[in-house]
Amino acid sequence: MSYAKKRMLAGLLAATVVALSLLVAACGGSSDSKLSLVAYSTPQEAYEALIPAFQKTSAGKDISFNQSYGASGDQERAVEAGLKADVVALSLAPDVDKLVKANKVDANWDKNKFGGFVTNSVVVLVTRKGNPKNIKTWDDLIKPGVEVITPNPFTSGGARWNVMAAYGAQLEQGKSKQEALAYLNKLFENVAVQDKSARESLQTFTGGKGDVLISYENEAITAQRKGEDIDYVIPDQTILIQNPAAVTIGSKDAAKSFLDYLWTPAAQRIYESKGYRSVIPSLVDKSQFPTPPDLFKIDKFGGWSTVTDQFFDPAKGYLVDIEQKKGVPTEK
Q1: Which of 33, 51, 198, 285 has its CA 20 to 30 A from that of 177?
Q2: Please, what are the domains in the chain?
Q3: DSSP H helices in 173-291
Q4: Cβ-Cβ contacts under 8 Å for 22 (sequence gap 6 or more)
């Protein structure tokens, strides 16, 4: 099947999903007691625990939820196209900002002491049990014969965190920007599969493909707790992942109550039980979540606006040439 036909079918599928969601919402009536949560793929287990905990509170009593999970970019575009959402929980702040531009989310969504972020994590290197390839550093990922798994950065927010972790690690080691970009070229030469989302990449890896998976720390912890035969390494140089959540314009009052609940110690402990680092510093268990020696933020590169333009713009971003050489789609 040609790429054009695949794109057409993908568009039809997305339109069908949106249409069905609207039909389901209509059939279910307009009850104020039901909220729609649209989230990126990896925190599904967390929200499946957070929702019943919220429902036990006075604010959550009699509130039910529709839940949707997928690649962050796909979820953002679906909401923009009409997918019902009262609360959005996405991988990247820019995905929420796109919903601001689409008049779906208020521009002040990030104006609280947490910056609108409900969870923290770091990028880690997930290996087979016992780490048979002896993966310890970013340099190990570009060795001959090492097969790497990471999602497509043009669809997955998690993949963009991975890319910036790998790039920033080179700068932290004292390399120049040109050398850091050269490293990305070598890294992607070893990438075997690029799924649409971080969760799909985890499934590819646990299914037996690849020697190392670049992923969220919380994904590695979740996989271990599910009995997967994996280990993970926190490299000395890595990025702090900050994941946002927001309510949509015109959402029910209960949506704001749910969002506020996510910043309570009770909710943050649930996130932590699912492998996330709390956004409340005093709640972070340093024995389970050590601070890497060279931990940096996206601000190191000028913030997501600058990074998106320089690295992931589908017409001129640094990653376009790298991905096109591999025949990987670089369009939405």
Answers
A1: 198
A2: 3-118+243-283 (3.40.190.10), 121-240+294-326 (3.40.190.10)
A3: 177-189, 198-206, 217-225, 253-262, 265-273
A4: 82, 83, 84
pLDDT at residue 330, as a whole number: 84
- Whether residue 10 is predicted with pLDDT greater than 60 in this model: the reply is no
Using the structure block, give the residue that is written with the tokens 């970009």: 181
Residue 318 CA: distances (Å) to CA of 153, 160, 266, 315: 11, 12, 41, 9
The helix (H) or strand (E) run that includes residue 86 is: none
CA angle 163, 159, 66 (to 5 degrees): 155
| Average pLDDT for the chain | 91
- Check: pTM over 0.90? Answer yes or no: no
**pLDDT tens for residues 40-57?**
999 999 999 999 999 999
pLDDT tens per residue, range 113-133: 999 999 999 999 999 999 999
Does the pLDDT of residue 3 top 90, yes or no? no
Strand pairing category for 294-296 and 237-247: parallel
Q: Which DSSP state fits 277?
A: B
Number of neighbouring beta carbons within 10 Å of residue 164: 25
CA contacts within 13 A on the Cβ side of 235: 32
Q: Is 147 exposed, middle or buried (0-12, 13-18, 19+ CB in 10 A)?
A: middle
Contact present, 209 and 128 (Cβ < 8 Å): no
